[in-house]
Design goal:
single chain; alpha/beta; TIM Barrel; 9-stranded mixed beta sheet; globular; disordered N terminus; binds iron/sulfur cluster
């Protein structure tokens, strides 16, 4: 099918960007950025019942209609579509992230098939970096041997210490999962698998002590730690949100100060590293902050092409598009207003963000957090005050240190930003 920016018969959702004029953008010189990251929902269910999960506990309940596992035939079609996109855009490297639900529930053969089918479809001239995000409970030597064979990197969700983790990350019968996750992590930390460990992912809870949370994660030696703000919108604000204060900003600043002042770099913290990079004029490599084009597509378990799944926190159907891998290409997805809106930088932001001193670093924050039913996504983040406080603190701190240390300090601080990988 030829690219047709006017092809959609109906708006994709309430408010902005449902009627964003992609044809006018193209006439104005804008060109889409090809997808480089493909999130493949290999299994749609989970073996945990975390209280804050955007998949199962928030506005969108579409998982109920998904097949439990992506079929082998759908995997083959997804692989062929990704190969088509790689070829039409001349890409030499892409990232494939096997995701869920809990991806390990798909079983070893499905995981193996997904990675090998994709690598085979794109051919030997294209590198496919493969990784997965897991809750860690099912990690065992059989899975880890497979990941070593396929050179797959593994990121595990862990919310700090046992008390903090078990407040939210519960099994179906309501018991905490911490000890089982730690058992899985201990397998991953063994010398023969350690190189597969890409990092820990942690959702912020203001009730946890921030420094104790950070230090409890350090004992697993993660190469990187990602702190995620709990999902919320203007209609459904995050827990503890305060219009007159910045509790999440203050919480993260305590970790920043502990991390930044450590005598050696204990781990990377992607949010902080990205803000430091941008403070020195480099582009962001995460969708959480900055104005870089989002280049991620999601394929649901049934083969539907969707937007990033954190949008499920906004409203029922927020991730949906009219496209499916059985009939549509990823190039077509780039022409949808919903995807184009994630690639046009400042033009996608609210007037308040456009006039903000920190807009080039903040970028309005994570896209789902801007949502308000009456206006869509053309709003500042529901975390606006928190982001402003955190970014101001980091930028002021590193610039002051660079000024004090002179040239050598600038080189070292910029190196810290440069070394941050794609955790
Ligand atoms: S700090 Fe607030 S106003 Fe400034 S760019 Fe971020 S969300 Fe927008």
């Amino acid at each position: 099918m030829a690219l047709d920016p006017g092809a959609e018969a109906a708006p994709e959702g309430p408010g902005w960007p449902a009627w964003l004029d992609v044809r006018a953008l193209l006439e104005d010189g804008w060109r889409p950025t090809p997808f480089r990251e493909f999130v493949i929902k290999i299994h749609s269910r989970c073996n945990l019942a975390c209280t804050y999960c955007y998949m199962y506990e928030m506005a969108d309940q579409s998982w109920r209609n998904q097949p439990r596992r992506m079929s082998a035939a759908t995997i083959d079609t997804v692989a062929a579509r990704i190969a088509e996109h790689v070829e039409s855009n001349g890409l030499s490297r892409i990232e494939a992230i096997l995701h869920g639900g809990e991806p390990l529930l798909a079983g070893r053969e499905s995981l193996r098939h997904a990675v090998t089918a994709l690598r085979s479809a794109v051919g030997p001239g294209v590198t496919v970096g493969a990784s997965l995000q897991t809750n860690g409970i099912l990690l065992n030597p059989e899975f880890l041997d497979l990941f070593a064979e396929l050179e797959m990197r593994v990121s595990v969700s862990l919310d700090g210490d046992e008390e903090g983790h078990d407040r939210h990350r519960l099994t179906a019968n309501g018991t905490g999962s911490y000890r089982r996750v730690v058992a899985g992590l201990e397998q991953l930390m063994k010398p023969r698998y350690r190189h597969l460990f890409s990092g820990l992912l942690s959702t912020v809870d203001l009730r946890n002590d921030p420094v104790a949370t950070y230090e409890s994660m350090l004992k697993f030696g993660p190469p990187a730690v990602d702190f995620l703000l709990p999902h919320g919108t203007w209609d459904s604000p995050p827990p503890g949100a305060d219009e007159a204060a910045a509790p999440y900003g203050d919480w993260l600043i305590q970790i920043f100060d502990r991390w930044y002042r450590a005598p050696f770099r204990e781990t990377r913290i992607r949010l902080f590293n990205e803000i430091i990079r941008m403070a020195f004029g480099r582009p962001s490599r995460t969708e959480a902050v900055g104005l870089s084009p989002a280049a991620t597509a999601v394929v649901e378990t049934n083969g539907a092409i969707e937007q990033v799944d954190t949008l499920k926190a906004a409203y029922e159907g927020a991730t949906r598009t009219p496209l499916h891998v059985s009939r549509d290409s990823f190039d077509e997805a780039l022409m949808l207003p919903s995807f184009a809106a994630r690639q046009i930088g400042l033009r996608a932001l609210s007037e308040q963000c456009k006039s903000c001193d920190l807009v080039r670093i903040c970028g309005g924050g994570l896209y789902p957090h801007r949502y308000r039913a009456s206006s869509g996504f053309a709003n500042p983040s529901v975390y606006c005050r928190d982001l402003f406080r955190l970014i101001s603190h980091i930028v002021t701190t590193v610039r002051r240190d660079v000024a004090a240390l002179g040239k050598e300090g600038r080189r070292r601080t910029e190196d810290d930003g440069r070394k941050e990988g794609t955790a």
